[in-house]
Design goal:
The complex is a heterodimer.
Chain A: H1 6-41, H2 46-87
Helix pairs in contact in A: 1-2
Chain B: H1 2-5, H2 12-33, H3 41-62, E1 83-87, E2 115-118, E3 124-129, H4 130-160, H5 169-175, H6 177-213, E4 215-216, E5 235-236
Parallel strand pairs in B: 1-3
Antiparallel strand pairs in B: 2-3, 4-5
Helix pairs in contact in B: 2-3, 4-6
Classes of the chains: A mainly alpha, B mainly alpha.
Chain lengths: 88, 240
C-alpha cells in the first residue's frame, strides 16, 4: 500500500531536511542565549552581553521562521495535491 | 493543471532560509534592545517571515511561467579557447543484395572515441563524431523538452481558462494525466526528429558553403612522435 504519493514524499523530504538543519541551529541559538545569561551574571561588558544575545535572537528567529514557514508551505502544497487528486 | 506543472518546483524550501535570515536580521536588533519591555517583537518578526514565505508561494503558484525559465544557468562557449570540431564520415555501404528487404546495409559505426588532431604549431584540435554528438544532444534535450511541453500546456490552459464555462470538458482534458503524458511524448518525439534533421542540414550547408568560398584552413594529421613538417598556414582551394 502506498502511504504517500511521490509529490507528497518530496515535500515531506524537503520539510524534514529544513527541520533537521533548523533544529541543530536552534540548539546553537539556545547555547548562545545561555552564554549571554552567563556573561550577564558575571558582569561582563554590556556590549558583549548585547551582541551575544543579539546573535542568539537572530539565529533563533531565523530558525523559527524556517521551521514555521516549512510547515505552512508544506501543508499548503500537500493540501493542493489532495484537492487535485480528489478532482481527478 | 497549475498544480501538475508546479509539482517539480521546490525552490521555496531553499529560499525560505534567505527569507528567515533577512526577516530575523530586521527584527533581531529591536527584539534584543527591548527584550524585557516588548518580548513580542521577535514573534512579530517570525509572523512576518512566515507570511512573506506563504505570499511568495501563493503568488508563484498562480503566476504562469514561460520558456524563459529554461535559459537559467546557460553558459556560452565564449570562454573556451581550444578548437573542438565535429567530423562526419561518409557511410560505407555494401553492394551485396539483402535477402528480404533489398536495402543496403550501412556498415558505418559511430566512432566511440574522440579524434585529436595536432596542427603545425602543436595545437590540438578535438573532433567528435557527428552522429554521437547528435545522439547525445537529443538525449540531453529530452529533459528540457518535457519542461518546455509542460510550460506550453500551462500557458495554453491559462489563456483558455476564460472559456471554461463555455466548454466545461476542457478542464478535464487539461487535467487528464494521460493526455498530458501523450502530448509530452509526441512533442518530444517530433522535436528529436527535427533536431536530428536540422543538424544534418546545418552540416551540409556549411560543407557546401565552405566548398564554394574556398576559404579553408588545412591541417595535416601527425603522429605525436614525428616532428611536424613546415606547412603553410592557409591554403585556398582552387576551383575546377
Amino acid at each position: 500500500m502506498k502511504l504517500f504519493d511521490r509529490q507528497t514524499k518530496t515535500i515531506l523530504l524537503h520539510m524534514t531536511r529544513n527541520f533537521i538543519v533548523a533544529l541543530v541551529m536552534l540548539f546553537f541559538a539556545f547555547c548562545l542565549d545561555v552564554t549571554a545569561d552567563f556573561f550577564e551574571q558575571n558582569h561582563r561588558s554590556h556590549y558583549l552581553v548585547f551582541m551575544t544575545r543579539f546573535a542568539a535572537v537572530f539565529l533563533g528567529g531565523a530558525d523559527l521562521i524556517v521551521i514555521a514557514g516549512s510547515v505552512v508551505v508544506g501543508a499548503y502544497r500537500i493540501m493542493k495535491t489532495m484537492i487535485v487528486q480528489e478532482d481527478k | 493543471m497549475n498544480d501538475e506543472i508546479k509539482s517539480g518546483d521546490y525552490r521555496i524550501f531553499n529560499e525560505i532560509w534567505l527569507i528567515g535570515i533577512v526577516s530575523s536580521l530586521l527584527f533581531a536588533f529591536p527584539a534584543t534592545y527591548w527584550r524585557t519591555e516588548a518580548p513580542w517583537i521577535m514573534g512579530l518578526g517570525v509572523t512576518v517571515g512566515v507570511a512573506f514565505t506563504l505570499f511568495v508561494e501563493v503568488v508563484r503558484s498562480r503566476k504562469p511561467e514561460f520558456l524563459i525559465a529554461l535559459a537559467r544557468g546557460h553558459k556560452t562557449w565564449s570562454f573556451y579557447s581550444k578548437i573542438i570540431g565535429l567530423f562526419v564520415r561518409e557511410a560505407q555501404t555494401t553492394t551485396k543484395q539483402m535477402e528480404l528487404t533489398g536495402l543496403e546495409i550501412i556498415t558505418q559505426k559511430p566512432a566511440k572515441r574522440v579524434i585529436v588532431l595536432e596542427d603545425e604549431e602543436h595545437r590540438k584540435i578535438t573532433l567528435i563524431d557527428f552522429d554521437r554528438f547528435m545522439a547525445r544532444v537529443t538525449s540531453v534535450i529530452g529533459k528540457d523538452l518535457a519542461i518546455a511541453s509542460e510550460y506550453a500546456l500551462r500557458t495554453a490552459w491559462t489563456r483558455l481558462k476564460p472559456l471554461q464555462d463555455e466548454y466545461p470538458q476542457m478542464e478535464a482534458f487539461f487535467r487528464d494525466p494521460m493526455v498530458i503524458e501523450q502530448l509530452k511524448k509526441d512533442i518530444a518525439a517530433n522535436a528529436h526528429t527535427a533536431v536530428a534533421k536540422s543538424g544534418e542540414q546545418a552540416v551540409r550547408f556549411f560543407l557546401e558553403e565552405f566548398a564554394k568560398s574556398g576559404d579553408v584552413a588545412r591541417y595535416r594529421i601527425l603522429p605525436n612522435e614525428v616532428a611536424p613538417p613546415q606547412i603553410p598556414k592557409r591554403h585556398s582551394v582552387k576551383k575546377a
